[in-house]
Amino acid sequence: MSDYKKIRVGIVGGAGYTGGEMLRILLNHPMANIVFVHSRSNAGQPAYKVHSDLHGDTDLRFSSEMNDDIDVLFLCVGHGEAKAFLEANTIKEEISIIDLSQDFRLMKNSSLGGRQFVYGLPECNREQIQTAENIANPGCFATAIQLGLLPLAKAKVLNEVHSTGITGSTGAGQKLTETSHFSWRANNIQAYKSLSHQHLNEVLQTLGQFQTQAVPVNFIPWRGDFTRGIYVSSYTQCDMSIEAAYELYNSYYKDHPFTHVSAEMIDLKQVVNTNKCLIHLEKVGDKLIVHSAIDNLLKGASGQAVQNMNIMFGLPETAGLQLKANSF
User: Fold this and answer.
1) pLDDT at res. 118
2) Helix/strand/coil (H/E/C) assignment for every residue in the chain
3) Catalytic annotation on 238?
4) Is pLDDT of 52 > 50?
5) Nearest to 29, CA basis, from 323, 326, 325
6) What is the pLDDT of residue 328?
7) If I label 193, which of 69, 75, 79, 201 is the partner at 20 to 30 A Cα–Cα?
8) CA distance to 134, 182, 294, 297, per residue, from 258 (Å)
9) In this structure, are residues 40 and 26 in contact, taking their beta carbons and an 8 Å threshold?
């Protein structure tokens, strides 16, 4: 990678879960240099005071000030906060923005001022990402669901989908809530936002790129009693054999370094702490069942954001993201 110029990076919202993961990835990225990490509430504090796993890894301190001497700005802020931040702060046009919130994911909301945001799902939009100046990073559930369905949609054989997915407590963010409190979450599972989760809008938008006829996606998410990871099981009516389905999926993902199709049943620990998505297929009667698993903070957030940065700046797609799973 000696032929590449290091990318100068700024991070806004560095004190949250996704900000912490962004720091961890970029501190070990061979072609990135973190210029600043912004957090008004923690200004002046060493990053490791908030993210204790970084103790000994960096002397970076949180800043309340912006620095224009960067190539890319990561917005690791809550939904609605990214748009407000960009409206309140002047960011030079030549600085690319990768936003991890949902503010710019839908086409109807994909522009602000002179900036146009491209939906950053590499397994679907890699060519657009290569020439993009700004990226709207996909949602975590949306990533897991879409990666499970994209090959069927591209082949125009996707029918009505029924999905159930379970996510770890970090998906709710760092702020303490009733359902993220340990005494509630431990040894507990709960459904929420049945058939109305906000990520469904971006899922339907992506599937619509391949199949013009709307395909209903019925999704029920669960809160799980673990910290990180997403496991989704989707099923749809499908006439093709299991062998043909595997051939379709393997062909679709053969050139995508982070999405892998497994002939064996997958489990969550295989992907936690990685930027991978693992997919397993089953055929029962006329139903094709698709299991997909990701780490919600990596492939579902910060890891995918860095993957998008790599693609945008012409770096190897896997740079800084070859991470080992926490399998035990």
Assistant:
1) 98
2) CCCCCCEEEEEECCCCHHHHHHHHHHHCCCCEEEEEEECHHHCCCEHHHHCHHHCCCCCCEEECCCCCCCCEEEECCCCCHHHHHHHHCCCCCCCEEEECCCCCCCHHHCEECCEECEECCHHHHHHHHHCCCEEECCCHHHHHHHHHHHHHHHCCCCCCEEEEEEECHHHHCCCCCCCCCHHHHCCCCEECCCCCCCCHHHHHHHHCCCCCCCCCEEEEEEECCCCCCEEEEEEEECCCCHHHHHHHHHHHHCCCCCEEEECCCCCHHHCCCCCCEEEEEEEECCEEEEEEEECCCCCCCHHHHHHHHHHHCCCCCCCCCCCCCCCC
3) no
4) yes
5) 323
6) 79
7) 75
8) 22, 32, 10, 15
9) no
Which of 74-83, 184-193, 244-253 is the most confident on average?
244-253
Smallest Cα–Cα separation from 294: which of 142, 118, 72, 84? Answer: 142
Q: What separation in angstroms does the CA of 14 have from each of 41, 115, 223?
A: 10, 23, 25
What span, in angstroms and rounded, lies between the C-alpha atoms of 282 and 285?
Answer: 10
User: Is residue 44's pLDDT more than 60?
Assistant: yes
Average pLDDT in the chain: 94
Instruction: Establish how many alpha carbons lie within 13 A of residue 294's alpha carbon, considering only the half-sphere containing its beta carbon.
Output: 28
Q: Quick one: pLDDT band at residue 175, thresholds 50, 70, 90?
A: low
- Kindly report the pTM of this predicted structure: 0.95
Which pLDDT score, from 0 to 100, does residue 213 have? 82
Q: Quote the percentage of the chain above a pLDDT of 70.
A: 97
